[in-house]
Known about the structure:
Blueprint: H1 2-8, H2 14-37, H3 41-78, E1 81-84, E2 95-98
Antiparallel strand pairs: 1-2
Helix pairs in contact: 1-2, 2-3
Amino acid sequence: MPLLMVVVSPMGALVPIEFAASLGFLAVLGAIGAKAGGANILRATARVTFWGALAMAVTAGIGKLFGRLSEDMSRACLYGYQISGLATNSPRSITIQPAHL
């Protein structure tokens, strides 16, 4: 169902709608699972929704952190640049320079 939301949502509101729809569908699945297992429906729904939201937030944070770096590296490789300094822990030590042919 969240994939269907991508198709029907306007581009300007895609991320918030997808986030809300994913949480909504997670809540429904949590309630169904609790009902099937004989557990407390409210607690199970809250638990599944909370941990789902946390997982999405962590994933978004990692994407934000590494997304720009990987985009720059992909572009550099595409245009024939040499990338060095990837073995260090600091993104500031990465250098991109023209490759020697």
